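Hey, resending since the last one bounced:
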Amino acid sequence: MYINYKGYSAEYDEASNTFSCSFTPSGTSQEIRFITNGKASIRSYTGERFSVSDYKKVECKQSVALSGRTLSVIYADGPASVPRVELHFALEACSLQIRTFTRAIVCVEGDILWGDEPETSTFGVRLNAEDHILRAACGPAFSVHDNALFDRTADRALEFKATDLFHVRYDWGSSHYRFDFESGLDFGRSFSFKIHENFCKRKFAIPYSPIDKRHGFSTPPVGWMTWYAVQFKANEEIVLKNARSLASIFGKYSDKLCLWVDWEWNHSGFTGLGDDGVDTFTPRKEAYPNGLAPVAKEIEKLGLIPALWIGATNDGRENDLLRKNPEWILAQKQVWCGQWWIDPSHPDVVEKYIPAVFRQVLDWGYKAIKWDCLPATLSVCDEFHSKFKDRTLSTDAAMRNVVRSARKTIGPDVYMLSCSAESERDITFAMDEFSASRIGGDIFSWSEFLSHSIDRVLHFFPLHNTAFYTDGDNVVLRDEFNTLAQARSRVSFYGLAGLPVTIGDEFSALDDARIDMLKRIIPVADIHPSDIQQKKRAAGYVTVDLAVCREFGNWNVVSIMNTKDETLELNLSLLSDFHIDTGSGRRFAVYDFWKKEHIGIVGDTLTVAIAPMDTAVLRITPIADNPELISTSRHITQGGIDLTALAWDAKKNILSGTSRCVEGDAYTITCHVPEGYVLSGVDCSEKIAHRTDGAIAAIDIHPSKSGGVDWKIQFTKQ
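The structure tokens again:
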């Protein structure tokens, strides 16, 4: 029997005793099924279990209310302990509720069909989270406190509400999510589904479009940039020297590395007046005597991706195109980045000038673009709006046309980063055309890092890897601006939030410890938000809670950053603070990534002490009665990107797996070995060493080449 009310439908198949639920998106006429293979089972007071096939009579009927319709399914003539069970599908304008009615526990389960790519583009989330924790996930994780599935491709959220136990998990066998509900013993228990269309578009008032990764960066890019590293000292020699270092140090760690030639090719200072003979089409001769094209060519020879800064809406000098077409100029006003400002409302600016600027960048050989000066442009356009060629266009509308023109010119395959961010306006007005956005000001100092990177990431993280990549700006680690603890904190935050990693130091200014830190966050993991909510930083510390979900296991990697100059001590709850299900007496191994030590086995309570301005990165792994992997050394996600397989053979007492290793980079697997087991051998094609310390076993692999390495760890059960 089928029932429909406004946007929701429910259907009960009396032949198979299963149900499905559908909705019709606004503005369409085609229903989309979001629940399928739904079925109920029953458990009596005494623990007897029944299926609906144990009931001789099944009756379906409809009823009509003023503001909805209900499909009732009544199971009768059943077992003596539970002779009658009722399911009611109540459809209203904004939700579909399923009610159970009997004196027993009713279990309902089914498949959730939400999004075309559920493993990679459907996220378990909380829609309105009131805390200060940056919650993220790598893989199709769903925490005990999540209340919705968000499909980034359609900007739709499927919200769940329940009176009793309601669980959602990703089923790797069927490649979609499943739910199960367990009612209480008394009458009238329920759970419901509510669909939110255009969720981010409405919540944040933005031109939402799902992230477009045709530029080839399946995860945020890694690279090196001139501005933070050398500033106005940048020139061809320095760029290529650091390009060679980037390739040699990190070439084995990422297959895509960018070399960003920043704004110094066009500026020698902050005056905005421009140098003689230098404009948008002509680089500074003393810095780049051979022009920018040979630099791009040499960068590519090193296996890197050449990337270039551009300030397309203004110029320090009146270039030839503007000189020949003075009607394209909106105003002459000296600002830090230039003085000649184009009129974004002029059709020829959109159709001729902007294409000329971006074709020049492509002709020079640059494959990624950083577009700067947008906040200043919007302000100048507001100030001189009365001089617009087309005054019927708002500043935002006119500038969207300019950005669209650039995107049309370069095509979808070029990574385009929006830069220089002051407010939501300049970050979001054309976000659907950009690949990423820098979201704050410069972050040289520690205080700048906190206010212009961390605070901004917390605010914009709901859009990260949903609509575009949120860029917290360069990773600056040198001791001019950081202690070793502060450097570790910067790296930890970027690595577990999954932000672009653009190195902002000359490599000669980084010691081995800082270089090694960077290796632990490269490549960037495919990380997405778990809260669709803007947040603010807590007083004294910053927490990132990353849930990692792989086919072979689930764990959390948590970073706790002490932002103060005194030791921080915290008593934390795994359930309340990190949304880890600690029910049924579950136990967890806690491993400190940076200190390379096992903290201990905990239930729900965790106590940590963190040095001033340092960060603790802890992998929290649920453990059983057999040996378990509790950390790996390759990447800060501790298995999130390097482990490709992991299995425990209970018959042979073998823990086996496959790891992506880097040639010459020692790879450590750390295992918890419960009482009753001892490590008795390791089988691996590469050179290995192993050691034990109480309940902890560590296996060191020394890879002779990069790529997958199979390993087996033999345990003996005593």
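The mean pLDDT is 97.

Sorry for the duplicate.
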